[in-house]
TrEMBL record:
Family statement: Belongs to the glycosyltransferase 28 family.
Matches recorded under Pfam families: EryCIII-like_C (PF06722), EryCIII-like_N (PF21036)
Gene Ontology molecular function terms on file: hexosyltransferase activity; UDP-glycosyltransferase activity
Region (Disordered): 419-442
Residues annotated as domain Erythromycin biosynthesis protein CIII-like N-terminal: 23-260
A single GO BP: antibiotic biosynthetic process
Keyword DNA-binding assigned: no
Protein name as it appears in the record: Glycosyltransferase
Keywords, ordered alphabetically: Antibiotic biosynthesis, Glycosyltransferase, Transferase
Domain Erythromycin biosynthesis protein CIII-like C-terminal residues, every copy: 276-419
């Protein structure tokens, strides 16, 4: 079958799709990965076939502007989707969240030229299955307009699924005049530009016909949605293995410090200062490997036990580490779980970082420090606790056992083949008579 992957133009989002795309390709299926020009080189370096859609997304600039606009309330800004509250999500908060998400994220990630290019590609190439990034709603639009089956491929806990499910339950109880939302308006208008007839908004356009979920079972958000669990297999991009990594650590224990490649590119800052973390580890009998080379001049003289590097693949580094401090990025979080590396998270409050921090604490595989409480003394205390308390290593091993026990990307290929056959449309939406978009809408 033909499988089209649609991803947000950010390196970490591309990386989250590589192992499944590779599994489908090695199983004999035709695979294309479509995104804006920003990440086309990353797709090729992963050994996959790329297709350019739209123009440069410039996610760094877009996210900085979004943060500046909503710096006083990032929850309503839509960038923080974590809902760790015990009480039900209030209607006004849920409506504000998805209104902001549509304007700031969905429409920014999928501007009109990108949507049209992806729909045109799907119409011409006729994929059987479209696998899409949860923020790339152009994927399900293209699938619906070409008759393909489609599935979300998650990059972490399904915070979107939980919030969207809660939002729909609240929406169904509102007055008829409140039923139309910005997300529904945008998706309906987008469909109608192509079909020039009324196509009703469906929740499948936000949540997929089914979801492919790499989250370990104990950290998975329980939802009544069709789900295909898959083992998380790390892909951190191409790199050379440095000579020092083949040598024994210079101290009894090694600690990885990363504040996130994607976060730094997207926002220019994190929620914890690197100087605070370095002060916390100064003098400890620990070798700290820190991805800080680009900013070393600003930090001055580094502690003697810190090895600053520009980049090193976590998949290669973490097997030699006794712990990791990071910001809560999905690739870092999931790779550490896959290697049973105890974690200390300082959540950056972007997207679902707090959800991951709470899940980590519940699992016993690590802990977190709230950004507003960060200090060198507190970080030092938590780092020592991470090393000295054996329960964290035991918890990390339990989670890794869950991951190993989950079907691999290769194992789920027959499942995806079956689901595609069940969901693929064969009616007029796969007809060559599909029109080009209309600028006037329906």
């Amino acid at each position: 079958m033909r499988v089209l992957f649609a991803t947000m133009a950010a390196r970490s989002h591309v990386y989250a799709q590589v192992t499944l795309a590779s599994a489908l390709r090695t199983a004999g299926h035709e695979v294309l990965v479509a995104s804006q020009p920003d990440v086309l080189d990353d797709i090729v370096r992963a050994g996959l076939t790329r297709v350019r859609i739209g123009e440069d997304l410039n996610i760094e600039e877009e996210t900085r502007e979004a943060n500046a606009s909503f710096e006083d309330d990032r929850n309503l800004g839509g960038l923080a989707m974590s809902n760790t509250r015990d009480d039900p999500l209030p209607w006004d908060h849920a409506l504000g969240m998805f209104t902001a998400m549509t304007a700031m994220v969905f429409q920014n990630v999928c501007p009109e030229p990108m949507v049209d290019d992806l729909v045109g590609l799907a119409r011409d190439w006729r994929p059987d299955l479209v696998v899409w990034d949860p923020l790339t709603l152009a994927g399900p639009v293209a699938a619906r307009l070409s008759g393909a089956a489609h599935a979300r491929l998650l990059f972490g806990p399904d915070q979107m699924g939980r919030n969207r499910t809660a939002f729909r339950a609240l929406l169904d109880r509102q007055r008829p005049s409140c039923v139309t939302t910005r997300c529904a308006e945008w998706l309906t208008w987008t469909l109608e530009r192509w079909r020039r007839q009324r196509l009703d908004m469906s929740e499948e356009l936000v949540l997929g016909q089914w979801t492919i979920d790499p989250t370990p079972p104990s950290m998975r958000i329980p939802l009544d949605l069709p789900c295909v669990p898959v083992r998380y297999v790390p892909y951190n991009g191409p790199s050379l293995l440095p000579d020092w990594l083949r040598e024994p650590p210079r101290h009894p224990r090694r600690l990885c410090l990363t504040l996130g490649v994607s976060l730094g590119e997207a926002t220019g800052a994190g929620t914890v200062a690197a100087s605070d973390v370095l002060a916390a580890v100064d003098g400890l009998d620990v070798e700290v490997v820190a991805t800080l080379s680009r900013n070393c001049q600003e930090l001055g003289t580094l502690p003697a036990n810190v090895r600053a590097v520009d980049f090193v693949r976590l998949n290669a580094l973490l097997p030699s580490c006794s712990g990791i401090i990071h910001h809560g990025g999905s690739g870092t979080f999931m790779t550490a779980l896959a290697h049973a590396t105890p974690q200390l998270i300082v959540p950056d409050m972007m997207w679902d970082a707090m959800e991951k921090a709470h899940g980590l604490a519940r699992s016993g595989a690590g802990g977190y420090v709230d950004a507003k409480d960060v200090s060198p003394d507190l970080l030092r205390e938590r780092v020592l606790d991470l090393f000295d308390d054996p329960s964290y290593a035991a918890g990390a091993r339990r989670v890794r056992a869950e991951i190993v026990g989950t079907p691999s990307p290769n194992d789920i290929v027959p499942v995806l083949e079956r689901l595609t056959a069940e969901h693929q449309a064969g009616g007029p939406e796969r007809s060559p008579a599909l029109k080009s978009p209309s600028t006037g809408g329906a």
